[in-house]
Design goal:
alpha/beta; Collagenase (Catalytic Domain); Immunoglobulin-like; 3 domains; 6-stranded mixed beta sheet; 7 helices; 27 strands; elongated
């Protein structure tokens, strides 16, 4: 029943039930007086200056849902996500709010949700909302808008094209989440009665529009550039809307603040009906003043294995995660991999052959996504494949080149938790041992060269024996 009422209401307002192109509207949030019950009760007893702002930090656990198509494509670029969260916290700095990404990113592969109408948007939030968290969904098209907050489903959806660094759509929609209406509230429904239009003289500021007296009249329920058109109130007084408020519809370049009364309302909403957010442990904050240094592969490296390539970088003090990006271009707009890991290495096994890539790493902390990424490096994959073994002896084991040439060394790349001696033998396919040498295996990441004897072209077996453990890898040898 809730969904049917929502669809009917949007239909009466001329809303679009399914957008076939990129979002054309700005905010699809349509709050009624019923949705604003808490705010109106709060405003009825509000005393300016009674709530002390500053000095208190409120950490807001935010569940991030990255929505793609059925085949897992179209995801929001994580570099944009982390930079946008950094800027979001700057927008909310005066409130003391710090929004942090709670838990792992949730990836949703569903084309109906990726470009959704109001019905599917409601289904999406019912399917994936996590209770007692601020749930935000990054999609391609949220019902024809840049974004919206759904009061009935208590979630936010934002178009990835409107969530680019430098934008303020996320700040706007989160303002709705914490009780704020538009500065032009009432004009979404058409021209309000004269008494419901906020007057320039401020006499009805408590009862008209958004109910905040420090946000002056605004009659512009559409996207506009500052300074906007000249308007006239019911008493004949002319004015220009103040486009600096995040809750207006002025373009991103105009907006830079929440008013003092808006900030007080959001803080009071957090301390009141949304105080469950304060029950979470305070996340550790780190300044992350340094960037990671990339180790391997080296810059401009060529003939890297597409089926096995280890990326390594230096740790950063205070970082708990690292964001590794692989891209097909130097601007990182065409993403091949968006990986978040707690390690300072990553093993890629599914790159394309004979392809140039660019890579970089950004350190992350629970309440700080503002660190700069490392300087980028490039590399090119080759046309040969690496032999990679699922090893019981080593944490990681790979042998290359494969195929190898007679007289050429095989390189055994390994990561071991301990040091020990091992016999490394080359066998033919009948199991006959052709060579065998005892080697020292060292703890950590290492490489070892194994000589290839004069043999005929064909398949051979490289055998590694350590105490009662044996590993074998098939290798091709050519003359």
């Amino acid at each position: 029943m809730k969904k049917l009422l929502l669809i009917a209401a949007v239909g009466l307002l001329g809303g679009v039930l399914r957008a076939q192109t990129a979002p054309s509207g700005y905010c699809g949030t349509l709050q009624t007086e019923s949705d604003l019950t808490w705010l109106r009760n709060y405003q009825a007893t509000y005393v300016p200056g009674e709530l002390e702002r500053g000095g208190t930090t409120y950490y807001i656990p935010t569940k991030v849902h990255i929505v793609g198509t059925d085949d897992g494509s179209g995801y929001y670029n994580l570099s944009y996500l982390y930079q946008s969260f950094c800027e979001l916290n700057e927008h909310y700095a005066e409130t003391g709010f710090i929004f942090y990404i709670y838990g792992d990113l949730n990836y949703v592969d569903n084309t109906d949700y990726y470009e959704h109408d109001w019905f599917d948007g409601s289904n999406m939030m019912e399917d994936y909302n996590v209770n007692n968290l601020l749930n935000v969904y990054f999609v391609s098209d949220p019902a024809g808008n840049c974004g919206y907050f759904s009061p009935s489903d208590d979630g936010v959806a934002v178009a990835k094209s409107c969530a680019m660094p430098g934008g303020t759509t996320i700040a706007h929609e989160f303002g709705h989440f914490f009780s704020l209406p538009h500065t032009f509230y009432g004009w979404e429904w058409g021209t309000p009665d004269d008494n419901d239009q906020e007057w320039v003289n401020g006499a009805n500021c408590h009862s008209a529009a958004d109910g905040f007296c420090d946000t002056p009249p605004d009659y512009l329920p559409y996207r506009w550039n500052c300074p906007g058109p000249l308007q006239t109130d019911p008493h004949g007084e002319t004015f220009y809307s103040d486009g600096t408020f995040y809750m207006s519809y002025s373009n991103d370049a105009c907006t830079d603040k929440f008013s003092a009364e808006q900030q007080d309302a959001m803080i009071s909403n957090l301390l009141g009906p949304r105080n469950n957010f304060l029950d979470y442990p305070t996340p550790a904050y780190a300044d992350l003043t340094e960037a990671s240094t990339l180790i391997t592969p080296e810059d401009a490296a060529i003939n890297q294995f597409s089926n096995y390539l280890v990326f390594e970088w230096t740790p950063v003090t205070g970082a708990t995660q690292y964001h590794l990006q692989l891209a097909y271009n130097a601007s990182f707009s065409a993403i091949a991999k968006d990986v978040v890991t707690t390690n300072t290495f990553y093993e890629a096994t599914d790159l394309q052959m004979d392809k140039k890539y660019y890579w970089r790493v950004r350190p992350l902390a629970p309440a700080n996504t503002c660190a700069s990424p490392s300087n980028a490096r490039s590399f090119t994959t080759g046309t040969e494949l690496n032999s990679v073994a699922n090893s019981e002896i080593f944490d990681h084991l790979a042998v290359y080149p494969n195929p190898a040439l007679v007289g050429q060394n095989l390189t055994m790349e390994y990561r071991s938790a301990e040091s020990f001696r091992a016999d490394i033998s080359l066998l033919d396919m009948t199991g006959r041992e052709l060579t065998s040498t005892n080697y020292q295996i060292n703890q950590g990441n290492n490489t070892l060269d194994v000589a290839v004897p004069a043999v005929s072209s064909g398949m051979y077996i490289l055998r590694i024996t350590a105490e009662n453990r044996i590993e074998t890898i098939s290798v091709m040898i050519r003359n």
